[in-house]
Amino acid sequence: LKSTWAYGISKTTSDNLPLLTKGLFFYTLSIISASDHIPTEVSEKSVVEQIRSDIDTDYANVDLSLETLCDYRKYNSKYVSRRFREEMGISFSEYLQSCRIHHACTLLAGTNRSVQEVALDVGYRDALYFSKVFKKCMGVTDLNACRYCGWWFYW
User: Do 90 and 131 meet the contact criterion of CB atoms below 8 Å apart?
Assistant: First the structure.
């Protein structure tokens, strides 16, 4: 590729200079862009740690998703998804769901908030959907059982 650019520069005329300049500009941008989205081996683990930390901090945001975090951090979402599963053994969405249910159990056991309030507090817009997810994760349909039994995930 270097020889192609060298050849192009050596054959530059006033007629093809704008085309060569434009090509060099786009080539440079592609190199910079590629280096931003492909972390080195040394920083791969820190990518997953950063995403995990973002989830642990912002789990209550109803709009939280892999895409929003990757857009914010300027990471490739497919790459992060693959690395997350490799390092954590579960997907991004499974980790987010576990984090939300863990905090929901803590709220249900320690407060008198309604299921609707708890659902909103941990990042679910819909209390019915939250109840379904809760049942799937915890195996109980009665969310108030957490209040009486003191159930919660051991994090």
Answer: no
Cβ atoms of residues 109 and 146 within 8 Å? yes
Read off the pLDDT of residues 13-24 as tens digits, 9 standing for 90 and up: 777 666 556 565
User: Is pTM beyond 0.90 here?
Assistant: no
Neighbours of 153 (CB within 10 A): 14
Q: What is the pLDDT of residues 66-88, one digit of tens each?
A: 999 999 999 999 999 999 999 98
Q: Is 131 exposed, middle or buried (0-12, 13-18, 19+ CB in 10 A)?
A: middle
Task: Yes or no: say if 58 and 103 are a contact pair by the CB < 8 Å rule.
Answer: no
Structural element, H or E, at residue 144: none
Q: Please report which residue ranges of 41-141 form alpha helices under DSSP H.
A: 41-58, 66-73, 77-88, 92-110, 115-121, 127-138
Give me the torsion for CA of 72, 78, 81, 87, rounded to 10°: -110
Residue pair 104/122 in contact by the 8 Å Cβ criterion = yes
Cβ burial 31-44 (10 Å sphere, 16+ → b, else e) = eeeeeeeebeeeeb
Q: How far apart are CA 12 and CA 95, in angstroms?
A: 55
